[in-house]
Amino acid sequence: PQVWRMLGRARLASDEVFPAIQALERAARLTNAADDWAALGEVLVLQAEGEPDAAAAEAFAEALRRDPANV
């Protein structure tokens, strides 16, 4: 999972948003960690040009289910 997380961050740093989303989603599904779900939500908001869409809301909701203190 750590490799997927790192790949997602590297892709995002290279302005490759869609590949970043794919990698971060893989990391989140493998770990089910709140931080990974929150990171995915943030990138999905970035992809939607700052407007949270249903996919971002779902990722943030999953992060909160995993860790209600993760705000």
- What is the β-strand count? 0
Query: What form results from the Cα inertia axes?
Result: globular
The overall pLDDT, averaged over residues, is 94
Q: In angstroms, what separates the terminal alpha carbons?
A: 22 Å
Q: What's the alpha carbon Rg, rounded to whole Å?
A: 11 Å
Oligomerization category of the chains in this entry: single chain
Instruction: List unreliable stretches of 5+ residues.
Output: none
Helix/strand class? mainly alpha
Can you put this structure into words, describing what you see?
Helices cover 76% and strands 0% of the residues. It has helices at residues 2-13, 17-31, 34-47, 54-66.
Secondary structure blueprint with pairings:
Elements: H1 2-13, H2 17-31, H3 34-47, H4 54-66
Helix pairs in contact: 1-2, 2-3, 3-4
Q: How would you concisely characterize the structure shown here?
A:
The protein is mainly alpha-helical and 71 residues long. The chain has helices at residues 2-13, 17-31, 34-47, 54-66.
Keywords:
about 70 residues; mainly alpha; 4 helices; globular
